[in-house]
Amino acid sequence: RGWKVQGMKPGGPRPRLPWQVLLAEFAGTALLVGVGLSFVILNFGKGSPVVEMISPDGPRRLLTGFLFGTTGGLIALSPVGRESGAHINPAVTLGFFLMGKMRLVLAAGYVAAQLLGAVAGSLPLVLWGRMGRSVHLGATVPGPGYGVWAALAGEVASTFALVAGLFFFVRHRRIRAFTPLLFPFLYALMVFVEAPVSGTSTNPARTLGPAAVSGDWTGWWAYWLGPAVGAVLAVALHRLRWFRGLELEVAKLYHFEHDPRGVFKGQGSA
């Protein structure tokens, strides 16, 4: 049962993708997008009471980033995160793959589940009506006064910070258990500083969902290329000799020793 590849003989039966784990990754990404972008709409949508109560953009960006990061952290702590490891982001999956902790087919399955989950999680956002449409359901687009190349640079930088910070936590045994606490504070800072440039996606699935439902694809390629480059750079940093004494044991954000289906046993990089 699950994804067991150790000891496979050439020409033997191909391993099955663990559907329970992929379903959990689908659900986790749907929750991240549906709940996280609801905070975006509530804090920035036209006619929102939050906009009237907190008129400056800066504090609302700080609050939005904290709530979005908290959503991701809670998903990692939940039974969904316990099942799949709660990547809920193709850039994170790419990072674990490049670090040699996932096989290619499993990583591809994760990314497919994340993309489908993001679209599913964006569908309920239409219930926000005019308020949601005023911000294109939380779609990430280059900010006013910034072009797509600036957005690309912003996505590279913010995704690098995300993946590098994540690996820093999960590779240190003493702080590994606190990994979910990283996200509220990191996203609060990143959204506060970088959101005016690109919207701070750091996640191709998070960008795909509202774009597919709202139809706003402005600068879409920057939100795929930027996170990919940022993840690659973060992996390159963690390959340096400074980090060689640190061990990345499993492709999970939390519940590191929980692997009842054998999904991560014997995982290599290809």
Radius of gyration: 18 Å
Derived structural class: mainly alpha
Percent in helix: 55-70%
Which residue ranges are poorly predicted, with pLDDT under 50 across at least 5 consecutive positions?
A: 1-14
Q: What percentage of the residues does DSSP assign to strands (E)?
A: under 5%
Distance between the termini: 21 Å
- SS elements, strand count: 0
Counting H and I runs of at least 4 residues, what is the number of helices?
A: 11
The helix/strand series, from N terminus to C terminus, equals: HHHHHHHHHHH
Mean pLDDT: 89
Q: Sum up the overall morphology in one term.
A: globular
Main sheet record: none
Description:
- With 270 residues, the protein is an all-alpha fold.
- 60% of the residues lie in helices and 0% in strands.
- It is built from eleven helices and no strands.
- Helix 1 runs antiparallel to helix 3, helix 1 runs parallel beside helix 6 and helix 5 packs parallel to helix 11.
- The longest helix is centred in the first third of the chain and has 26 residues.
